[in-house]
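User: Here's a structure from my thesis project, written as structure tokens. My advisor, Dr. K., wants to see whether a designed sequence matches the one we expressed. Can you design one independently, without my sequence as a hint?
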């Protein structure tokens, strides 16, 4: 297993942690940690998709990362 595969698996695991935490009501879908983990996992999976040339996943993870990233930025502006 190479570094790129480890990154892909780790980021997929982060996405699943956020999903499970939301499904079992540990985190709400508008919580910082849910959005932050989704942003980090989308960014890592986007990198993985670009390196492997997986166009559908490039599109999906770009949208996912942008939406989650906007929510993370909004969180910081709300807390000021």
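Assistant: Designed independently from the structure alone:
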């Amino acid at each position: 297993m190479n570094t790129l595969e480890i990154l892909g698996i780790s980021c997929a695991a982060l996405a699943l942690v956020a999903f499970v935490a939301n499904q079992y009501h540990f985190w709400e879908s508008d919580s910082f940690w849910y959005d932050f983990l989704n942003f980090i996992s989308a960014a890592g999976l986007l990198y993985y998709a670009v390196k492997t040339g997986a166009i559908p996943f490039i599109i999906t993870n770009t949208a996912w990362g942008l939406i989650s990233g906007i929510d993370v930025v909004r969180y910081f502006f709300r807390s000021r």
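When you compare it with your expressed construct, this may help: The helical segments are 3-23, 32-52, 55-78.
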